Amino acid sequence: MDWTAIGLSLELAAIAAGVLLILGLPVAYWIAFSERRWKFLVEAFVSLPLVLPPTVLGFYVLVALGSRSPIGRAWTAWTGHGLAFTFEALVIASVLYSFPFAVQPIAAAFSQIDPTLLEASATLGASRWRTFFRIVLPLSLEGIVAGAVLSFAHTLGEFGVVLMVGGNLPGVTRTVSISIYDDVQAMRLGTANQTALALLIFSFAVLASVYALLRKPWSVGPIA
Amino acid sequence: MRLIASIQKRLAPAFTLDVVLSLEPGFTMLFGASGSGKTTLLRALAGLLTPDSGSITIGQRVVFSVVPPINLPAAARDVGFVFQHLALFPHMSVADNIGYGLGDAEPGLRRQRVRAIADSFQIGHVLTRRPQDVSGGERQRAALARSLVLDPTLLLLDEPLAALDHATQSRIIDDLRAWNASHGIPILYVTHAHREVFALGERVLVMDRGRIVADGSPSDVMDAPGREPIAQIVGFENLFAATIVDRRPDAGTMLCRLAQMGTELEVPLAHTKNDSSVRLAIRAGDILLATDKPHGLSARNVLGGTLAAIRREGPTVVADVDARDRFVVHVTPSAVDGLGLVAGMPVWLIIKTYSCRVVSA
After folding, report:
1. What is the number of structural domains in chain B?
2. Best-predicted range by mean pLDDT (A56-65, A85-94, B40-49)
3. For residue A217, what is the nearest residue in chain B, using CA coordinates?
4. Are strands B53-58 and B61-65 parallel, antiparallel or unpaired?
5. Of B16, B96, B213, B231, whose CB count within 10 A is highest?
6. Which of B230, B254, B282 is the last residue of a domain?
7. Global ipTM
8. Do B57 and B3 contact (CB within 8 A), yes or no?
9. C-alpha to C-alpha distances, A172 to A132, A142, A161, nearest whole angstrom
């Protein structure tokens, strides 16, 4: 079993999920509560990774992060090495690729909150921040946890984008899915089976514990 | 504390809120059909909706004006708002709901104030429970306490008691009156229930299509509507165009002929401007219905006709009667059973002279 790859994948998924929570919350908030007419454009853009082949996304990320791109050059100037085929590049690509998996459940949870609860909070003198932390967050905890878990699980299982952006460097960018692919290509089916099974059991355990935790602690919405 | 407001807000091509009002401390009822703009007015006062023009002054404080541009957000207006469905926070205890607006207060002081207001609204015993685990009346009290603990300068109530039985309703209102005796703020109470206007209000504003069309004491406005839109709003189901055929000043009455089918009705004498055409308004609940021709009545108007249709609407039964002209009559379900009312049977209508209101056209 490729423990290095498993460890790398878990690290990548955890970091991506963390970054996605931080970036996803404001985006989801905007999608749920904005009344801009062009909101649908943002929603469509956020959902793009759901329909694009990972190679397309991976290709653009690679170009965007490459040594000739402004981002790539700035990164090189800052850190002294290129961005493509690094763990950092994988994180960036994973965040982009899993974005809809974080944003959609959170935005759905936000928009299910009865808007009069937010108005009530305002008439009680609460700032937007206080309303967000005291009302919006607790009432959409379920969606937020779902978003975090889904983006974690989705990152854990990604393949195409990793291959395009990260390549296959052991301990740096060789994640579980790539390790399994390598094993199969090399006819090391036993090893592939072990790693695959470990990933499957782990993924199931994570999802099951989350769904168990989320058995409706309270109902969301107005009380008639 | 006093509220002075002038609010204009165009909400749809055919609907503009256009209201000028001034509220003194105490209860003012805001009455009108649904869609007349009552809730919209409340939202504008609370800062949940920005008017196109106008100004809002609460006490000495201007909370909205166009010149100079002032638009305090809802959170800074000190306006209490009790929503129709209360909007209690379902994930917090009653105590946390009530203390929500006291966020900055020191915890000990906060507990003390929550306890005090909860006691004065008689919900001290449910403070640790969630809103969904207490009774409907206790929820209303919690919503009131949550707003009042902040000492608002104006309280807006959007039909908050509509779902409660009358006894519970009036107990809550008594507690609210007691609270306001020492605070003296204007309370604007939205309702579309006739009964609440009489039971609660010292003053009533009638709203129709975004405007205030009547303003006065409940009995002035609701019982003697001088203008037809108000008659319709306050629930005169029967409205007829009519001409005066005979004035009887000695009897204090006059005889009117309905324009459509010529039914004659004796109505109270009214002064009209050199014009014999008037409109008559009669409440459906003020008309008696008989299955035999009545004798020896004091009522002057007895009309024979046919029961054209009968249908149930909530607790009342609505009967349409063809007595040349078409009348709408409200009867109770037990009367329907007792008299064996069915569509098509002959009936008589009895209408007292003073049940007919003369409204200007």
Report:
1. 2
2. B40-49
3. B91
4. antiparallel
5. B231
6. B230
7. 0.78
8. yes
9. 38, 33, 15
